[in-house]
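[Automated response] Your request has been received and processed.

Submitted sequence:
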Amino acid sequence: MSITKTITALPAPPSRSDPTNFDSRADTFLGALPTLATEINTWAGQANSTASTVSSDKTAAQSAKTAAEAARDVAISYGSAATAAKTAIEQALDTVAGETASVVAHAADDNPHPVPDSQFAGAVAYATDLASQAARSLSLKQNLAANLTAVSALAVTDGNFIVGNGSTFVAESGATARASLGLGDSATKNVGTTAGTVAAGDTLATETDNRVLYDEELTRAVAYATDLAGQAARTLSGSVPSNVPASASAPGVAGQIRYASGYLYVCVAANTWHRVAIAAWT
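Generated structure:
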């Protein structure tokens, strides 16, 4: 899900410098605040849903990568076992052939001294033991499998993923793997709040982090709307709030006015305050 909700700009606030339109503007401004609160809630819900989707996509991609790496390691280990079994069998056959040739040579020799029974029996026992070792090595060998053959034949290309395509295993690039897993293109989009971007934030590591982030944004937005409502009410009653900013860069919205003994404070831009000294009217 993407963020499609937009926040409607508030109408012009009432101003005492324009007394003719003050009442109508005040009514219009106050009437727009409930709509603003509803739109902010909708936007926050969409932002939370988008953040959850992005987190799930990331987890699925990581799981696919881990499974592919495990399959590759299994294929490599089976290949090593098969090579060891082949070497053991070849050694066993060479030894049996050598012992058999020795026994036959002694039997055919014109030497009147026959091969001792103990030596012949030892050769037979040794050949039998080697045959047993070869049999055990063969029992440990992984049977030939088309899938393992397919995996071992894949190119070891940096950034590729090993995935199943329904009939065999193939290597896919990051973009192709995302499409195969149905992850879409959220991992490649820019961060932002407009169409074609993913949810903005300092981190998208976990759903919990995102909920905290968007809850904070929602709190600030509601506080802003509440402050605007308070300004409107105070403007209607002819009073100016006295909770002055702590510094020239304190949080504020252009147009806000504060006063204290000796100074009048005006917010001229976001988080930018100016102040002017005031004195008794003489």
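Summary generated for your ticket: The radius of gyration is 41 Å. Residues 249 and 272 are 5 Å apart (CA to CA).
If you did not submit this request, please reply to this message.
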